[in-house]
Amino acid sequence: MNLYVGNLSYDIDEKELTRSFEEFGSVVSCRLITDRETGRARGFGFVEMEDQSAGMNAIDGLNDKEIGGRRLVVNEAREKTSRR
C-alpha cells in the first residue's frame, strides 16, 4: 500500500521516517520529495508498506501525530494524474 505523508518537518530524513512507519509493519520503500533546483525537502513524501493492513494501521497511528514539531497528514496515495 502506497501512502502519502504530508506536513513533514524539513529536517526529517528517510531513515527517521522509515523508523516511524516500521512500528506498523514492513516498509518496502520511503521517498522524500525534494526541490529539483535547490535539493531542499518539500515537506512531503511517500511510504510504501508491504500490505494493506500495515498501511491502514500506519494511517490510524500516524495521521495527525506530531513528529519533528509538525502534525503529519497520512493517507492513501492517489495515482499521479497528467498535468494537461
In total, the number of strands is: 6
Rg for CA atoms: 12 Å
Task: Please state the overall shape, judged from the principal axes of the Cα atoms.
Answer: globular
Average of the residue pLDDT scores: 94
How helical, in percent, are the residues? 10-25%
Order of helices and strands: EHEEHEEE
Distance between the termini: 27 Å
**What about the largest sheet?**
4 strands, antiparallel
Spatially, the strands of the biggest sheet line up as 2-3-1-6
Poorly predicted segments: none
Explain this structure.
This protein is α+β, with helices and mostly antiparallel strands and 84 residues long. It is built from 2 helices and 6 strands. The strands form 2 sheets. Strands 2-3-1-6 form a 4-stranded antiparallel beta sheet. The longest helix has 11 residues, at 52-62. It starts with a strand and ends in an 8-residue tail after the last strand.
